[in-house]
Protein 1
Amino acid sequence: MTVTMPAGVQVARDLVGPAIEEAVNRLSADVRIVAAYHLGLADADGRPTRSGSGKALRPALALLSARAAGSKPEAAVPAAAAVELVHNFSLLHDDIMDGDTERRHRPTAWTVFGIGGAILAGDALLVLAEDLLLERPPYGIWAARCLSAAVQRLIAGQGADLAFERRDDVQVADCLDMAGDKTAALMACACSIGAVHVGAPATLAMGLAAFGANAGLAFQMTDDLLGIWGAPEVTGKPVGSDVRARKKSMPIVTALASGTEAGSALAALLARPGELTEDEVARAASLVEAAGGKERTEAIADSALASAFESLEQAEMPDDVRAEFAAIAEFITARTW
Amino acid sequence: MTVTMPAGVQVARDLVGPAIEEAVNRLSADVRIVAAYHLGLADADGRPTRSGSGKALRPALALLSARAAGSKPEAAVPAAAAVELVHNFSLLHDDIMDGDTERRHRPTAWTVFGIGGAILAGDALLVLAEDLLLERPPYGIWAARCLSAAVQRLIAGQGADLAFERRDDVQVADCLDMAGDKTAALMACACSIGAVHVGAPATLAMGLAAFGANAGLAFQMTDDLLGIWGAPEVTGKPVGSDVRARKKSMPIVTALASGTEAGSALAALLARPGELTEDEVARAASLVEAAGGKERTEAIADSALASAFESLEQAEMPDDVRAEFAAIAEFITARTW
């Protein structure tokens, strides 16, 4: 299955990219070099480059949400930039916490500039995001509140994810809560913040947030599936990487909770100390599937996506905007393996 | 020289402590346990305790600034809590970056909960601080902007401080800029945010901020002096600890820039690879003093404190409030060795 990048994403890059660059230029030199590197605006020596920037999905959603409210996308550029900055704040910090050494095919910022530099750059992007909105009363203030509520949930979700590593009693409900906080909350914010920023009625903003929350949940479930069965050329990670890392992702948690023989065999395999061999990783992935973990996760993704589309149908907006929202939701939940 | 804690500090603790506790209770369980531990509200297992909380200097200043504007201190409690939360956000993150293992006579949060937990708790306190203010329009919004401007400078200062470790060309001006960002900016914010939060005229807020910036600079210079000559029972660190760590603090930077023989001898000693012996630390401290580093730093501190008092005199406020501001400025710049 091949899915092409929705057109709105390139538009968002062109509109929001310069605003992000301008915002980053406000930072002090020592912090800016790390932020610019992480955002793909500069190499490790601070020389301008255009490699390794993100997909700009969240800015695209933010601009769409302004259009849903009948405004021009330009009106929501600060909100779109703010969401993207917050997303990158969380990537900078998560890469440290998760010990990840590569992102967007480049070494992660903490491996290049040290943990201190990456912590600070993340902090700076977070505050910058709030600043962009606080500078634009009256609706920017509301947008700032939406954003900081989403950030608090993002932090809660990452906290739960870290705690999962030390727990062996993670339930399906915990996993759903975690994904709701860690992924869906910021997606809900991205899908509604542009509307909030242009002063749209609360009913529209709430409808868009409901769409975003469900699309975000479906996105996370897809990511969990790709973490085990995704093609390495798509995910940039070896097959089975979440199994190898013994991550408490939804397929694994549902398999462990399945009460099946395959589930028990999986639990025994994962409880073995030391690194899993290639064969064991493959066997564990098969056991997850045999225990129904794949099917169950696909069902959660499908149901969340259906709810997202339902919210999208119910919200009043121009048809072309609705179609673009739908295209992005399809894009981020495409299962490519 | 003995200086007793100004009375306003205990008042601030009593007023602001419950607001901070209430705010922290909003955090998710996994993040809250780290934040509560760091703030001295709980032990490592989450059991309530009352050990190791900070001195509440910044909340005391924030409450005073509301009184300077003719309001009751109670009116500025959210602003005071926000400044204290931001201060603690920076401590949580700085302790990781600086590798510090002890704070307020307890193990630092990252040594207890891991780097990930401490990063997240810091992030959460930062967002919580902004939330407390954004919830209180109209003046809370202005207070939030003051606070986030201060946080951006705090981050810039910490970034410069980290960069200093890799530089051997740090000048006195760099050192002043760094202290202005890292310490003085948040102190200026603390001394004015209460006034901003109760809607005081900008002239008063600016006068208070000028007082705070200068008092903050004097405070940092005093801290730099204590870092070399402070009594261990006051600083909680061994004598000469900043020399041992080869920190680019003001006494050392001014000594190195002095063009004296002692300055050159100091440069040679600090350039030696490996850890310094006790004797070498003592010798380096003597060289800093002989090169005029102590005297010069004391002069900067004295001049900043004089400027602070000048701003304090010029600002219109009740006499008892002015006296309390002065008492805190004296307290934080007392040289105890």
Note: The CA atoms of residues 64 and 99 of chain B lie 34 Å apart.
Protein 2
Amino acid sequence: MNAIKTDIIDLMEGIGQRARAAAAILARSAPEQRYEGLCAAADSLLAHSEEILAANVKDIQAAQAKDLAPSLLDRLLLDESRVQAMSEGVRQVAELDDPVGQVTDEWLRPNGLVIQRVRVPLGVIGIIYESRPNVTADAGALCLKSGNTVILRGGSESFHSSTTIHGCMVAGLQKAGLPEDAIQMIPTTDRDAVGYLLSGMQNYVDVIVPRGGKNLIARVQSDARVPVIGHLEGLCHVYVHESADINKARDVVLNAKMRRTGICGAAETLLIDRACLDTHWQAIADALIEAGCEIRGDSKICELDSRAVAVNEADWDTEYLEAIISVRVVNDIEQAIEHIATHGSGHTEAIIAEDPDAADHFLHDLDSAILLHNASTQFADGGEFGMGAEIGIATGKIHARGPVGAEQLTSYKYVVRGTGQIRS
Amino acid sequence: MNAIKTDIIDLMEGIGQRARAAAAILARSAPEQRYEGLCAAADSLLAHSEEILAANVKDIQAAQAKDLAPSLLDRLLLDESRVQAMSEGVRQVAELDDPVGQVTDEWLRPNGLVIQRVRVPLGVIGIIYESRPNVTADAGALCLKSGNTVILRGGSESFHSSTTIHGCMVAGLQKAGLPEDAIQMIPTTDRDAVGYLLSGMQNYVDVIVPRGGKNLIARVQSDARVPVIGHLEGLCHVYVHESADINKARDVVLNAKMRRTGICGAAETLLIDRACLDTHWQAIADALIEAGCEIRGDSKICELDSRAVAVNEADWDTEYLEAIISVRVVNDIEQAIEHIATHGSGHTEAIIAEDPDAADHFLHDLDSAILLHNASTQFADGGEFGMGAEIGIATGKIHARGPVGAEQLTSYKYVVRGTGQIRS
């Protein structure tokens, strides 16, 4: 921390103080007011579509000059339909059930005390993200919905786009009479600002949510002096049990691997029972190969199928995020569970089986954030779970696990009503 | 970390590996087995009462030789009734509802997926505590109940007592056929072991729970590289609203301050409405003075009552943990809320009022872990909340807040059942 420039410290201290002050107001704000703010922000995004796209052109030009990879450029790029989708996303968050103030539990004590557990906002959330400018709107919206104030720190590549989007979110806050400081964006790309956000703002920031690649997450995990809700790798497995329906197995494996290969819920390893290899392998392999997927198989698979290449030990621990799948033949469900427990990242795993006992065994014994029976791992997503949106998928077990939506951005307080009880 | 001795690192690595291995077994263990283990541990504590007391004598003698403060000696001291209470506590934890496997939410998606949220253990919990040997039994029991394995690190003063108690807990595990390593105690008082537990065991430990004084908590918060569920100060307030019933106000203030002054739920500051000063002050002050409490009042209180001494600004931020109370006269509920929001530690606050709107206002606007209406702050306790026992009271807002019992030592996983759904 000794290397952080004093002007950045001053800047960040100001942001922190304003965030904390706004949090106190937001925590007491009416749900209707937050709803109104979100709708107004969604309107503002649409109304300022041209300015957002113009700002995005600046970012894209700068990125091209820096020879950014095509996949990064694609994440950065906005067009009219993406701005519309962003606005629509904010509106969807507005329509979610308001989590703040929900009574999640209530009980009566023998001495007459009535105890309620009531949801409250966490307070101030710091979001550190990379090139996707839409996170500015998504994260701002989810935090506002859940009564939290947010300090946004986007990637330098998307700085102009994010700044313009941020302006629209603030316009929504203003329209609803909410404090502008409820959604702040750090107005500099200086890396010291991230350093201070992680290590110097314990008094202002309640939790940090990093959203990006491995390097970002690793830096946040190592430097943060406040709690982090983050996700590490998504090394997801599909296990085809001997009782699996062939068509389901084929369709789910294909979808889990190939629908989108670059997302954390994409399958990386296929485990298949020895007992159904003769009946099931051909259909699954044909579908994968036809879709352009490379198969890295163990010796049994390579013996069976000349299209497969030999897998290495390191493959079992590799999140490809590409059109590659590692395949292992297992003797039984125990060996499949053992493999996943050893090599998995605790994100998402699926079993394909018609035998309900096998499914229950798998769902019970494994401890990943999401376990699916006869469904694709690509359902690992807040929207698909019905949460409306997500700020990320947590692979840790503290606080939130799996998709992190508005509800997961809350804590709770206990409200206890008595009639003069004292403790004996 | 570079200063940690290699033999300690080896010791701790072994403990971590065994804890992780035991966690995998425990997570799949049947509730009945954990119940049996707890009952057997409770039996063992009773059966070995004499050995525990003999070990305690050693600790007490060493502490006396070191001139430990009487309050610390009292925390350290065991007698037959305290051992009985410890055994009884373990039995009570056994009788709690088992949180593991509980389905806390379930919903159906339009595509037919059925999503359940199911409680699971956190994994491995590290507990760092000080002189009270009974924490060995309490914490061990709560972790076992919730399916977690635990690494216990007690204070050096209570080492012999804790080691003997730990032996009884392990006997319970053995009797139930559970892995002995489910409850481990670090078999050395070397401080390097704490250092390594905090900073070097990210691969083995999921969360650290410190239980002790400010210095311990501060060290843990600053050095831990894994999540911490901790409690900072308990700077608790009682606010007497002008509508308060005089007897309730007197009884609750007296109890909140004086029942036990050394616990975190003890009140430190009394706020009283100017409008009821003439009617309510005398009764409250008489009760406090009679019980031996020093009153540090603001200028209005000192003017009114010659028994009060003048309060300093620093008093408003002081957790006395003694028979001292600071008293401020406030103009109205807004000023009371403002004072608590500024000076409180977010632990526990009470309002004494007959006016239900005033109570709702207070309970709604303040954001402490526990807010009480017409009841003593000394109810801030897992047992009093009906949780059976607690491992501590969390003042942070991430993961758990307020009393931390067996349920709060769990996370969840999502179990999703489909019929071959793929994502479009």
Note: Chain A has a mean pLDDT of 94.
